[in-house]
Amino acid sequence: MPENRSPNLWTGRTDHTKRRSSFRYHQIVELIDLEKLSPSQEKACALIGFECEEGVRRNQGRLGAAHAPNAIRQALASLPWKLQEGIRLFDTGNIRCQNTELEKAQEALGQAVFHILTNDAAPIILGGGHETLFGHYLGVRKHIGNEASLGIINFDAHFDLRSYEEQPSSGTMFKQILEQDPNSHYFVLGIQRFGNTQELFDTADNLGVQYLYEEDIHDYRMAEIVAALNEFIEKHDYIMLTLCTDVLNAAFAPGVSAPSPFGLTPMMVRSLIRTVAAHKKTLSFDICEVNPSLDENGRTVKLGAYLTNEAIMALGGHHDDTRT
What we know:
This protein is an alpha/beta fold. The chain has 11 helices and 9 strands. The chain has a 9-stranded parallel beta sheet with strand order 1-3-2-4-9-8-5-6-7, sandwiched between helices.
């Protein structure tokens, strides 16, 4: 079960102790044991951290992402809370990868995500390396059942479709899912033309992956991108959303394992998150690859918190809740 729920992470400026319109995250968040989470009349989002970078190590990336969950919490704490009555925010703690037991940690994350969804809350997963996504997926798939059509939307510079014959890593998750689950489909936005080998492009084409290049997102009108996203969403029963922060331009997000000099701007990614997370079919969100040990003046952590806030605001503001 998750651990390390610390009230010390949730501190910040207090403008008023009773007027909700003045509240910030640290005044809203409720620390709770995951097993005590239960359905309520109010909508809810539940944070769950994944202190893991074993997948990044296996993928020969730069380490440090395991420290991101608590760093993102601290950066969220002082942000103004914009959703008013009828929305609750829970913090259920962190799941920690012990030693090199990645697969066991992913299974535990899957159980936590399943439990959150079963209790009518939207999971907000704070990674961790992008291996976080596979645990996220396990929980969503268990919740919706094997027959439901699942669309996975990823904002990422990389396909993460490497071979997992030797072992899974932070670069294999989508290949694992697509080869083992015929009812899951994958749309990735922000792909770097020179950040992926031709073999990975061939694998993506063979597996029916839908993708947009980073340069195309810069050139397209946002309306065209939103139309492509909505077309993908409408083909599926449920949607899960994942953000790999290396999709962002390195000038804005230096604290990632694999910085992208030609990455997307924060404004673009914010708009894309708002579009997907606000859709009634979207169940959950994860943010991955924030690396505090490589960050400059906390810039990437702060940006990660702001983008997580966008997802929480959009998920919490659903007008039509389809979660079961």
